[in-house]
Write a structure and sequence with these properties.
By secondary structure, the chain is mostly helical. Helix content is 73%, strand content 0%.
Length: 175
């Protein structure tokens, strides 16, 4: 899977299956036994990316403070979008179309964001009026313009700015 993701990132969604097999160090027959069509490997890479992003919420919360976990997860979201950008054109070719796949992945991502926001809000790391759906909309907006060469750096800067705005205001001290 990692070899396929790297091949898609390096050469685009139309990379040959022979190239993916070569990078994975397996024969083309082995690749076809696991992924009988191009659509099958594209779908598997996409599902893996979604599962890794969604699952990272729990892993981050286990090792970081909730506010930091939320910040890091949003940065991972940008990486996820970068991969999705590369393989999205090929997702349309999967059996039954991509709409069911997108619906399933959307639910996983929404649940992960909700968990992170709830935990960060519970300890006061973010303002109490923060809504997880609002943050997802902001993240999607940050990834607008994926065709420009500097979109990822811009999205990461915007996440840092957003995190500053999510923190509760500090009380003003009297002079």
């Amino acid at each position: 899977m990692e070899s396929a993701k790297a091949a898609f990132a390096d050469l685009g969604a139309e990379v040959s299956l022979d190239e993916i097999a070569r990078r994975a160090g397996v024969g083309i027959g082995t690749l076809y036994r696991h992924f009988p069509t191009r659509g099958a490997i594209v779908e598997a890479v996409y599902r893996r990316e979604v599962q890794q992003l969604a699952g990272s919420a729990t892993r981050l919360l286990a090792s970081l403070a909730p506010g930091e976990a939320l910040h890091e997860w949003m940065r991972l979201f940008v990486d996820y979008v970068a991969t999705k950008k590369v393989i999205a054109p090929a997702l349309g070719s999967i059996g039954g179309g991509a709409s069911q796949l997108y619906a399933s992945s959307g639910a996983q991502i929404t649940d992960a964001m909700r968990l992170l926001v709830d935990r960060a809000g519970a300890i006061g790391a973010i303002r109490p009026d923060v809504d997880s759906n609002d943050l997802l909309r902001a993240l999607v907006g940050f990834t607008y313009g994926v065709a420009s060469p500097d979109w990822q750096a811009s999205a990461l800067r915007l996440i840092d700015i957003l995190m500053d705005g999510l923190r509760p205001p500090r009380p003003i001290r009297a002079p």
